[in-house]
Amino acid sequence: MTRVYVCNCFGVTEAQVKKHAADGACTPRQIASACKAGTDCGSCVRRIQALLGRGAYPTRGLVDEGQPVLAEQLDEAA
């Protein structure tokens, strides 16, 4: 399996970003909270935005409705 890195600074792969997105992260800031991608040099933020814009993740609707999605998951990861 080929790893496609999105964030070279922290070694975050495209698959990891997609997993965080599927788990509820729908902004680059939420991705950064989940895995640090985009918090060092920032060169990957546009790629993260592109990944988030591709495909419809079911949790996006919950966010649009104002329901918390990622907070519980971050608590579990801590």
Q: What does this molecule look like?
A:
- With 78 residues, this protein is mostly helical.
- It is 49% helix and 6% strand.
- It is built from five helices and two strands; from the N terminus they run ββααααα.
- It has helices at residues 14-22, 28-35, 45-53, 60-64, 71-77, and strands at residues 5-7, 12-13.
- A two-stranded antiparallel sheet has the order 1-2.
- A hairpin with a 4-residue loop joins strand 1 and strand 2.
- The longest helix is centred in the N-terminal third of the chain and has 9 residues, at 14-22.
- The radius of gyration is 12 Å and the shape is globular.
- It starts with a strand and ends with a helix.
- The model is unreliable at 73-78 (pLDDT under 50).
Arithmetic mean pLDDT: 80
The chain-level structural class is mainly alpha
Distance between the termini: 29 Å
Shape descriptor reads: globular
Q: Write down the secondary-structure element order.
A: EEHHHHH
Mind telling me the C-alpha Rg?
12 Å
Q: Approximately how much helix is present in the residues? A: 40-55%
**Number of E-type strands:** 2
Give the biggest beta sheet: 2 strands, antiparallel
Beta strand %:
5-15%
- The helix tally amounts to 5
Q: Identify low-pLDDT runs.
A: 73-78
Main sheet: strand order: 1-2
